[in-house]
């Protein structure tokens, strides 16, 4: 789907801070993160909603969301992760994506109206991307 922003990221027509990629999925840093490390995990195949995804692909997306959450705890010192999928309503890009957000107690995230934060600068974004990519690779090797 050439008009889809996420398909353009998959094809590398649009740049993104990629954290992880396998044959079926791609994870990259959200450009408007709730907290540094906030990733979007997408199937490479264009699927608009959770209702439309094949069970076999959903299995891989779910497994990789789990691994991203583990990587955030290990690499970023998060105490947990918020993992969510908007399905049509509040889905800003019509391509299935899983938000995986590092969490700590007292981080101020309450309800469903959260202020977005920016990375300090491009270096901070790259440091965060590289950290999560490294820990994700280690996690994949260990199949936590």
Quick structural overview:
The protein has 144 residues and is α+β, with helices and mostly antiparallel strands. A hairpin with a 3-residue loop joins strand 1 and strand 2. The protein has three helices and five strands, in the order H-E-E-E-H-E-E-H.
How would you characterize this protein structure?
This protein is α+β, with helices and mostly antiparallel strands and 144 residues long. It has one domain (5-142): 2-Layer Sandwich (HIT family, subunit A). The protein has three helices and five strands; from the N terminus they run αβββαββα. The protein has helices spanning 5-10, 55-76, 122-142; strands spanning 18-21, 25-29, 39-43, 80-84, 98-103. The chain has a five-stranded antiparallel sheet with strand order 1-2-3-5-4. Strand 1 and strand 2 form a beta hairpin. Helix 2 (55-76) packs across helix 3 (122-142). The termini are far apart. The mean pLDDT is 90.
